[in-house]
Amino acid sequence: MTANIDPAELEKFGALASRWWDPESEFKPLHDINPARAGYIDEHLNIAGLKVVDIGCGGGILTEALAQRGAQTTGIDMSEAPLKVAKLHALEAELTIDYRQITAEALADEAAGSFDVVTCLEMLEHVPDPSSVIQAVERLLKPGGRAFFSTINRNPKAWAMAIVGAEYIMRLLPRGTHEYRKLIRPAELNRWAMDAGLKVTGMRGMHYNPLTRRTRLNDDVSVNYLLTAVKPVVE
Ligand code: SAH
Questions:
Q1: Which one of 79, 124, 172 would you pick to mutate in the ligand 1 pocket, going by the greatest count of ligand atoms within 8 A of its CB?
Q2: Ligand 1 pocket test: which of 123, 151, 173, 179 has the largest number of ligand atoms within 8 Å of its C-beta?
Q3: Coil, strand or helix: which one is 209?
Q4: Rounded CA separation 163/109 (Å)
Q5: Ligand 1 center to residue 155 CA distance, Å?
Q6: Cβ-contact 184, 152 below 8 angstroms
Q7: Cα(55) to centroid of ligand 1, in Å?
Q8: How do residues 187-232 score in pLDDT, each as one tens digit?
Q9: What is the DSSP code (8-state) at residue 234?
Q10: Confidence category of residue 1, pLDDT binned at 50, 70, 90
Q11: Minimal-distance CA residue to ligand 1 atom 10
């Protein structure tokens, strides 16, 4: 069985890895949206003391926010250079995070049912088979556990904002960061989550203004959005 990875995607992130923690770099948008997406997680539960795995963690911007909240945190990614950066940064920040180069699918084979929370943000649009990652998320969770996903919608407005606007006009992200055909409609993400056996409990639009560098959450999911789901407890 071949792993659910796209080597070109992993290289893309690998090449930029040294700048991951520079808030003025290509990763500026991830730094700027981080408090809002961590806040979305906080709205649903207090993760202090819980076992959390961050899938596609990259250099660890969200992973560290989870660890700072007192979660027992694991971060996984398939690109080597971002993981190295993540490990060094956690050391400097004096945070204990278990960083590993492993796919969600392989970790689910090894550690099924062992996490209270799984986060998978800005990652699904970079893999060949997002539904397989979502199935792995369901397997990783304990019954009653909660998952968080975020990605970019696929429609003309999302193309104009997230690709043309961000990559060509504002030059926030390198050209080719996002491919239109890999973007994911909320209905698709919702169906994959349901098919995996997860119960979707919420969805929010995420709006980032690169000029003010502020992020707002609301009900407009036409471009960036977050979704949360729970793994039902079987009686
Ligand atoms: N989740 C982080 C980083 C997003 S960038 C954040 O939001 O801050 C997307 C990350 O997904 C990159 O680090 C890339 O290496 C990783 N990735 C891509 N395909 C992957 C796969 N199949 N398994 C694990 N990580 C993957």
A1: 79
A2: 123
A3: strand
A4: 35
A5: 23
A6: yes
A7: 7
A8: 999 999 999 999 999 999 999 999 999 999 999 999 999 999 999 9
A9: P
A10: low
A11: 56
For ligand 1, whether the C-beta of 64 sits within 6 Å is: no
Task: Specify the 3-state DSSP secondary structure of 201.
Answer: strand
d(CA 127, CA 134): 11
Cα(105)–Cα(214) distance, rounded to whole angstroms?
Answer: 34
Among 170, 151, 144, 179, CA closest to 44: 144
Q: Give the rounded distance of the alpha carbon of 123 from its chain centre.
A: 5
What does the pLDDT look like over 108-130, one tens digit per residue?
999 999 999 999 999 999 999 99
pTM above 0.70, yes or no: yes
Residues present in the chain in total? 235
Distance 219 CA to ligand 1 centre (A): 26
Identity of the residue numbered 113: G
Q: Which CA distances in Å does 52 have to 64, 68, 183, 197, 230?
A: 11, 12, 26, 19, 14
Ligand 1 contacts CB of residue 79 (under 6 A): yes
Residue 220: strand, helix, or coil? coil
Tell the burial category of 97 from Cβ atoms under 10 Å away from its Cβ (0-12, 13-18, 19+): buried
**Residue for token pair 């991830």:** 30
